[in-house]
Fold:
Amino acid sequence: MENRAITPSLSQDQTQAPSDEMQEALRIWGGRPLSGNVRISGAKNSALALMAGALLCPEPCRLRNVPSLVDINRMGQVLQSLGVKLQQQEDALDIDASTLTTSKAPYELVSQLRASFFVIGSLVARLGSARVPLPGGCAIGARPVDLHVRGLQALGAEVRIEHGIVYADVKGRGGKLKGAKIYLDYPSVGATETLMMAATLAEGETIIENAAQEPEVEDLANFCRAMGAKIRGAGTNTVIIVGVPRLHTTDYSIIPDRIETGTFLVAGAITRSEISLSPVIPEHLTPAIAKLREMGCQVIFEAPNRLRIVPGELRATDIETLPYPGFPTDMQAQFMALLSVSTGNSVVTETVFENRMGHVPELVRMGADIRIKGENAIIRGVPLLSGAPVSGTDLRASAALVVAGLAADGETLMKGLRHLDRGYDNFESKLRKLGAKLERVTL
Ligand code: UD1
Structure:
């Protein structure tokens, strides 16, 4: 087994998804049933946060179950630009931040990946200073960082934004942040993670109220605790962090990706196929499982870490996206595809992001009957979708179009693979193993 440095796999070219440059598309032949087991990869959003968290540690750390994704490569590049050494061996990633030399993250990298902004918390905690470009907007909404900024200010950092760069500095106290009580106006995942990381090395106690409760926040807390941080309450709406002077090495395995799991559950339901998924943490999928059951599918807990979907006649239902433990916005598009072919009328309400309906016109192209009214999509179920040329507008929209294509009559040609490659580890080969017929083509 080769132990290769991550550097060669992180060239600028490869962090641009290859599909982006070569105008690749996915050709999907619909109507084939799926069967078998699918192996779920480590959670993308956990892996990104934990990579930022590893900056807190002056000793090398190992992350396991790291998914193979363009976004992970991009985050790796951000860490390398800060002087960190990375070494990758299959799904294990060694991160040595003992060599963290600079607090300046480069614009070209941060602008490509919002999660890379989250390094600001670790940088300011460890070095007393950070310069991180604003991540900018993205296809699904404006996505500001005001909650991150206000929280860092509460922790004693002086923060100013000039020419698109966020400068955070701790003056005095030997560059150490100071614990504080922070109330988040909204339970933002990223802000909770940034502030939790920042507070880990601060003087005294920090309490984050109205914190995000997502499993990825809890995973980050567990990783930091494995490095010696004192954190309790992660996974609830109040996180309490007592600062420690220094963290130490650890070897930590990332949780399974609940959104990938949910996407495969939808793939099973929409193609009326029984498939099994493992490893999974079923509690992380409570809202998706509840909706699938309401729609007429059975979801069986085959083993503590294995789910099986047994599809039924699909019935309409209403869905509203909310912070965890509500229904995840990252599953909204995939469920919209499923509701398009369910009997009856459904309403899907997107409350988390203001512009996350890019998949609607594409699903309509495939024969779905969907109208958008403000933050609601009104869906009248049709018996069958028909294959069509479509474009994925963001990561989860692309996944929704792929699952729609699997169930559609005829051929679907989906463009926009640069989004899909950001977030699904070996999606096509996993689907192919289940019996789907699809191929990547160059246009
Ligand atoms: C994370 C996930 C993303 C998921 C989202 C919501 C990662 C890498 N990404 O994104 O897949 O869709 O959670 O579950 O973990 N907001 C502000 N000000 C801020 C921060 C956020 O107004 O300072 C708003 C955003 O614009 C958005 C809402 O809060 O409308 C939720 O965003 P947030 O929870 O922060 O999402 P991310 O952490 O960016």
About this structure: DSSP finds 16 helices and 24 strands in the chain.
